[in-house]
Amino acid sequence: MNPTSLARGLAALLALALAFPAAASTPDAAPITVKDARVRLLPPSAPNTGAFMVIENRGEADVKLVKADNPVSKATELHTHIDDNGVKKMRQVPFIAVPAGGQAVLAPGGLHVMLIGLERPLRDGETIPLTLTFDDGTVLTVEAPVRKPVAPMREGK
Amino acid sequence: MSRGQRLLLVAVAALALAVVLTLTVWEPSDGADDLPSAVIGDAMSFSLRSTEGPVQLSDFRGDVVLVYFGYTACPDVCPTSLAAITAGLDRLTAAERERVTVVFISVDPARDTPTRLTEYAGFFAPEVLGVTGTAAEVKVVADHFGVFYRRRELPGSAGGYAMDHTALTYVVDPVGKLAARLDHGAPADVIAAAIRRQLEPPPKDLL
Questions:
Q1: HSE of A81 in the Cβ direction (CA atoms, 13 Å)?
Q2: pLDDT digits (tens, 9 = 90+) for B167-190
């Protein structure tokens, strides 16, 4: 095999690995899946943004999302919002619990993955790989498309 | 005890009770951040700055003005509110929309320069104007609207600090009076209806 075809082969393997993010998880780990992952498109001047998703846990043990990473911001943290009589308070949280047979919903106004200190403005439609680490050792990388913030559909607080 | 002394005692007791109530009810703390209620119908004015220079509420007399307090490092709550406002504007006719201004007031003047605010606000809709002032100027305006905000350090977070803030949208009518407060998360239809209510001339039989 010449070096060019070796490089092509490696590139193909890499593409395959990216296309099937679940393949990156530990084989014995709880079956955790992520859907509707997206990163918020914000103005270029906004230093931070948020990512939302639904994490499902089909396993029999509770798990916790304990860490998130991404390549476009200086730091990645887990945050939530507390609504105190119309006053919104953003706070960092040490983990996000995903109950056995249940799910954790990361949505506007509540839990989110915070991308702090964006190193470049994001583009509408590009995808950002978010690497999620759980306390049972599962590591998932999900491709989250960058989307404009949408208006809420229902009355809420 | 004379009648005068009794009256004095009652007055002192009432004052003490008022002080205690003020401290317990109004002192913002983690337990009870009670929002002071805004004075609906109170005429108001403010003077802040955008990249274009000084901004006063009176500059928009004749327009319906939506006022929102936030900050650009806010990744979730502020963009949700501004996206809802933008969607509300999209439901208006062009003629209606011409008479609406949205003022996004930063409660984080230490980080939000007028340049950053202009870029941030314009991303949502051309009607959104990003303004701020000195810490003291922002405080005066926020107090006027009954808006609570506070810098909250986030130890161990790369974000440094967050601004806790009231996430309501204030609707100011064309003569400069506070007409309504909209909850965070109010859908676009509710926002559009609140704007239209202030644009429509009142029925003649009510005048």
A1: 28
A2: 999 999 888 888 899 999 899 999
CA nearest B159 in A: which residue?
A: A116
Partners of residue B119 in chain A, C-beta under 8 Å: 43-45
User: In this predicted complex, what is the ipTM?
Assistant: 0.72
In the block, which residue shows the tokens 């106004």? A109
d(CA A98, CA A102): 6
Which residues in chain B touch residue A154, judged by CB atoms under 8 angstroms apart?
185, 187
d(CA B103, CA B128): 6
**Contact indicator for B185, B80 with CB cutoff of 8 Å:** yes
Q: Which of B74, B82, B183 is nearest residue A157 as measured by Cβ atoms?
A: B183
Residue of chain B whose alpha carbon sits nearest to that of A107: B76
Q: Is B128 on the interface with A (CB under 8 A)?
A: no
Nearest-by-CA chain A residue for B31: A84
Which of B197, B195, B203 is CA-nearest to residue B99? Answer: B195
pTM for this prediction: 0.76
Please tell me the distance from the alpha carbon of residue A85 to that of residue A154, in angstroms, as a whole number. 18
Domains and CATH numbers, chain A: 24-147 (2.60.40.1890)
Contacts of A84 in chain B (CB under 8 A): 33, 164
Tell me the CATH number for domain B47-206.
Answer: 3.40.30.10
Query: Is B162 in contact with A91 (CB distance < 8 Å)?
Result: yes
CA dist list (Å): A65 to A53, A54, A91, A141, B31: 12, 12, 16, 13, 28
pLDDT at A77: 96
Q: Which of A55, A48, A155 is nearest to A111 (CA)?
A: A55
